[in-house]
Amino acid sequence: MKKNVDCNIRHVTTAETNIFAELGFEESEAKRLQESAEKEVELLLAIKRQLMQEISTWIAENKLRQAEVAVKLNVTRPRVSDVVNLKTSKFTLDTLVMMLSKLGKPVSVTVG
């Protein structure tokens, strides 16, 4: 049974707006939180790109087609293409770590 949902959107925050300021933080704190969040996102993207590059390198070294890799990873060929093309938004870290593990390339994490 389909429910009738009333979606009254009262406010939309644009991409350029500091969400922390919108949430009521003081300007200096909002700026600090925004900068911190942006740094974390960049770090996450760098880690994803590194893991994806490892998978791409493994594919090239083993001279495999994406379809063959897809079978080994139990994913679709377009999914392998997304890895090779570094489409970071389509993957979580744990998915990339599991892919590398399936390829015999376990990942270790160091906290410093």
Quick structural summary:
The protein has 112 residues and is mostly helical. It has helices at residues 19-22, 27-61, 66-73, 77-84, 93-102.
Structural features, described:
The chain has 112 residues and is an all-alpha fold. The protein is built from 5 helices and no strands. The longest helix has 35 residues, at 27-61. The relative contact order is 0.10. The model has no long low-confidence stretch (mean pLDDT 92).
Strand-helix topology:
Elements: H1 19-22, H2 27-61, H3 66-73, H4 77-84, H5 93-102
Helix pairs in contact: 2-5, 3-4
Please provide the count of β strands: 0
Treating each run of at least 4 consecutive H or I residues as one helix, how many helices? 5
Taken from the alpha-carbon principal axes, the silhouette is elongated
What portion of residues belong to β-strands? Answer: under 5%
Question: What structural keywords apply?
Answer:
112 residues; mainly alpha; elongated
